[in-house]
């Protein structure tokens, strides 16, 4: 088990290093921030001074070396817009993002998984087809289209909910529903497929032939085995709690990390973009590590395999 954790942690560190390096290189090769942040009317001397102040006049390898040394000491750079530490700007926005993504995640779990189980247990019935039709619609409709439809119906036509902003708690309802609907549709489809695959296994038929009550077959055999592939999707959703709301936050003008990323990219605020990508990478890697540990808990065969490794 210790070898497994050490291997996974090493892979996680390499993944984060790759993300940080890739983002650093691409951002600096994609254009000069001074051209966007400063006015085109400023004298050339101001441009030169700006680039020197932020180290943009140095070779890219030297910029990268300096950035990594500072990052190891907890300094991830300052925003070129207001001079504040980039990581502080990101951490300030995380609570607002989690305020809509965590309730949306609960909707995904509480609606998607039971719907998928129900559809699998009533395969080819009218309710199964209806559940999957709704699931396909929720999965295929882009989030920004669903967001605009919800605004049109509940904000413009009915006037029940605000279309944007966070001045009132009701402003979070439409973003939460938008995020939750798509995720619930994905979970429903994956859970149904996993359940159908498990229900077709010989050990399910054997348990039924031995007279084991159907409820016990489902709860004791089908659900634990179907949970293994479903955990992968759930883990991905947990890891994307911060990054998964970029489009929705932009549509609803919600002041979270996603909206900050859009603003930072458009303004070429390099340190802020890098800090956001770092936080997203850490959250995704942590979620994947938790999924691997959950696999061992759900499947004893994996635990035995690791013990012998």
TrEMBL record:
Keyword annotations of the record: Cell membrane, Membrane, Transmembrane, Transmembrane helix, Transport
InterPro entries (UniProt xref): BPD_transp_1_N, MetI-like, MetI-like_sf
Pfam families referenced in this protein's UniProt entry, alphabetically: BPD_transp_1 (PF00528), BPD_transp_1_N (PF19300)
Name of the featured protein: ABC transporter permease
Main location: membrane
Lipid bilayer topology: Multi-pass membrane protein
Localization annotation: Cell membrane
Family: Belongs to the binding-protein-dependent transport system permease family.
PROSITE patterns assigned to the protein according to its UniProt record, in alphabetical order: ABC_TM1
Span of domain ABC transmembrane type-1: 94-291
CDD domains attached to this UniProt entry: TM_PBP2
Sequence intervals crossing the membrane: 12-31, 98-121, 133-160, 172-190, 233-255, 275-298
């Amino acid at each position: 088990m210790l070898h497994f954790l050490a291997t996974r942690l090493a892979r996680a560190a390499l993944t984060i290093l790759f993300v940080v390096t890739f983002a650093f290189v691409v951002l600096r090769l994609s254009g000069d921030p001074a051209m966007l942040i400063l006015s085109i009317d400023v004298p050339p001397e101001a441009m030169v001074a700006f680039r020197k102040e932020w180290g943009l006049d140095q070779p890219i390898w030297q910029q990268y070396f300096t950035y990594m040394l500072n990052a190891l000491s907890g300094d991830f750079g300052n925003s070129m817009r207001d001079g504040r530490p980039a990581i502080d700007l990101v951490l300030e926005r995380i609570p607002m993002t989690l305020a809509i993504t965590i309730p949306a995640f609960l909707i995904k779990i509480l609606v998607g998984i039971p719907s998928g189980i129900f559809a699998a247990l009533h395969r080819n019935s009218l309710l199964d087809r209806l559940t999957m039709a709704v699931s396909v619609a929720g999965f295929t409709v882009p989030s920004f289209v669903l967001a605009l439809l919800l605004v049109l119906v509940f904000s413009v036509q009915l006037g029940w909910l605000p279309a944007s902003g966070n001045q009132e708690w009701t402003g979070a309802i439409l973003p939460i529903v938008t995020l939750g609907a798509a995720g619930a549709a994905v979970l429903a489809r994956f859970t149904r497929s996993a359940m159908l695959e498990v229900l077709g296994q010989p050990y399910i038929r054997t348990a039924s032939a031995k007279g084991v009550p159907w409820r016990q077959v489902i709860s004791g055999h089908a659900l634990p085995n179907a949970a293994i592939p479903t955990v992968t999707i759930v883990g991905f959703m947990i890891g994307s709690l911060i990054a998964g709301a970029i489009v929705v936050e932009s549509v609803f003008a919600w002041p979270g990390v996603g909206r900050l990323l859009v603003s930072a990219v458009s303004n070429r605020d390099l340190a802020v973009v890098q800090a956001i990508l770092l936080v997203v990478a850490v959250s995704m890697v942590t979620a994947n590590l938790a999924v691997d540990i959950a696999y061992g808990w759900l499947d004893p065969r994996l635990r035995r395999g690791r013990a012998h490794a």
